[in-house]
Structure formats: structure tokens, C-alpha cells
Amino acid sequence: DAGITQSPRYKITETGRQVTLMCHQTWSHSYMFWYRQDLGHGLRLIYYSAAADITDKGEVPDGYVVSRSKTENFPLTLESATRSQTSVYFCASSESAASTDTQYFGPGTRLTVL
Amino acid sequence: AQSVAQPEDQVNVAEGNPLTVKCTYSVSGNPYLFWYVQYPNRGLQFLLKYITGDNLVKGSYGFEAEFNKSQTSFHLKKPSALVSDSALYFCAGTSGGYQKVTFGIGTKLQVIP
How confident is the model at residue A57 (pLDDT cuts 50, 70, 90)? Predict the structure, then answer.
């Protein structure tokens, strides 16, 4: 039972490059989320998705693009990476939209933009 | 706008002593509150949540949390700390609707042998 996986786990890139972070879940959860974790800010929501082909912005969406063609995958793309996007990125999923639902997190991707 | 505050960056406690990690919230309507734990180089793991009912919520690994509506608090507690409890703890909350949960900035718990 793989649960929720992220790849790569570590990535170093340069300013201006395009980077895609992958997220895959095996539970068939409807909802998926992307967060970034930064010191002093905790976790901030970037984008979320209610189902395949349904996505919406979170708190800090600028500079990011998402897609969800299949329920199990939710890639996050930085179209032109900037140093301020250096962070740890977490993907999460939950079974439904209910506020009472627990979110399940992947192991994270540590991204460094030089 | 909803918010969750964790007033302590770090909490140090001796092994075997009781521990408390503090959380206060500001949400409109009925709050739904969560605690998650993050071990080094790992994702967040769910500990417990308050939805409604009993103000004392019991969760994983012997942790519990007390919901206090008058003080708008949801402090995490454990009667006897273990060295293995050392980790980063996040409080989170929402008032409903879509899963737009707001996370606190995290509190590092250090249990000293």
C-alpha cells in the first residue's frame, strides 16, 4: 500500500527553468492539495483539486501551475522558477471535501532554486 | 479570515514529564481543529481532530487535546513525554466548506532524556 508518493524527493534547479513536481496517490481520494512549507510561515496552500479536471487556487498560487487529468496524479509545475520558490513542497489528499476529513501527506520534495 | 496561532516556537520538556503544546484559533462559526506531527524529512502525520462533542479528544501515540471554546484554544497534551515524541507539531483549523485548512507555523517539541 504505497499511499501518497512524491518525486523527486530533492531537486536543484536554476532561476528561469521549468520544474515539475509529481504527486501520486493510490487511494482514489477525490481531493488533492499542494502546500509549501517555509520557516516562519508553516504550511501554505498553493493549489487544490476537487476531482480530475477541477482545480482552484489556494493562498499562494502565483508562479505555479497545476493539472489533474487523472484522479491519482496531481503535478505541480513552476513555469519559470525563482529563488523565492526555494521551499519544501508537500502534496496531500483527502477522501472528500468535508472540513472534518483528515488530510494525508506525502514525504515532501525539497526544491532549491539557485 | 481564519487563523491559527502557535505562540511557542519551541517547547522543551524532560522525558517522563507531562507536555503541552499550545494552539489558539480564530474561525467564524463552528471550528474544526486538527493536530499533525512531522518527523524529520517526513510528511505530516495526523494525530487527532476535534469536530464536535466531548471537549477532550484522544488521538494517536497517547496524545490528547482539549478544546476550550471560551479561550479559543486547542492545546495538545500528553501525560508522560517520550524522547521519540521530539518532532514538529502543527495545529490546523477551518470553519467549514472546502478543505481550506489553515495551519499554524509549527512548534518544535524537544524531549530531553
Answer: very high
